[in-house]
Amino acid sequence: MSNLTNSPTWRKSSRSGGAQQCVEVATNVPGSAFIRDSKLGEDSPVLRTSPKSFAAFLDAIKDDRLS
Q: Which stretches does the entry tag as region Disordered (predicted)?
């Protein structure tokens, strides 16, 4: 990700409860949302998506539409 003007600022999921096995997200880069595995940290593969798609994904989780 060295070609990014803004570096992602990672934060753990609010649902993690401090656990080590959760996801981290970064939404501070304009036009992008990033998701990675927290236990792998910097070594984690990163999923990059649009903020609109990420918001739709979160809505689907909240509405229990992914079971």
A: 1-20
For residue 47, what is the DSSP state? E
User: End-to-end alpha-carbon separation of the chain, Å?
Assistant: 32
pTM equals: 0.76
Partner residues linked to 33 by β-bridges: 49
pLDDT in tens, 11-20: 987 776 666 6
As a whole number of angstroms, the distance between CA 40 and CA 45 comes to 8
Q: Which residue type is seen at 61?
A: I
Evaluate whether 20 touches 38 at the Cβ level (below 8 Å).
yes
